[in-house]
């Protein structure tokens, strides 16, 4: 497993989906509000699929000791916005 592996972290894909969905909704609301018609349903589908897969893999995650206990969402987010002025 690599340095950015989330094996051993329960429901890490759901956390990634929530974080990414939050960023996409905020960016859509700021830059192009009509995009909310796409980002909100896609975020809900992503979170639902992640929840199902993470629930199936929960026994594996509980059996593995995480290499980095602090690691939560190492993957780069699809939607990224720099909030600095």
Topology:
Elements: H1 12-31, H2 36-56, H3 58-63
Helix pairs in contact: 1-2
Structure at a glance:
The chain is an all-alpha fold and 85 residues long. It is 55% helix and 0% strand.
Fold and architecture overview:
With 85 residues, this protein is mainly alpha-helical. 55% of the residues lie in helices and 0% in strands. The protein has 3 helices and no strands. The protein has helices at residues 12-31, 36-56, 58-63. Helix 1 (12-31) packs antiparallel against helix 2. The chain is elongated, with a radius of gyration of 15 Å. The mean pLDDT is 80.
Question: Roughly what is the average pLDDT, rounded to an integer?
Answer: 80
Secondary structure category: mainly alpha
How many whole angstroms does the radius of gyration measure? 15 Å
The proportion of strand residues reads under 5%
Major sheet, described briefly? none
Query: Which regions have little confidence, pLDDT < 50, spanning 5+ residues?
Result: none
Oligomer: single chain
Number of separate helices? 3
Which series of helices and strands comes N to C?
A: HHH
Overall 3D shape = elongated
Identify the notable features of this structure and list them briefly.
elongated; 85 residues; mainly alpha
């Amino acid at each position: 497993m690599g340095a950015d592996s989330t094996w051993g972290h329960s429901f890490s894909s759901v956390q990634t989906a929530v974080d990414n969905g939050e960023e996409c909704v905020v960016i859509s609301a700021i830059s192009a509000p009509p995009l909310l018609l796409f980002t909100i349903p896609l975020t809900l589908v992503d979170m639902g699929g992640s929840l199902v897969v993470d629930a199936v893999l929960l026994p594996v995650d509980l059996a593995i000791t995480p290499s980095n206990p602090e690691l939560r969402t190492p993957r780069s987010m699809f939607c990224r916005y720099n909030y600095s002025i």
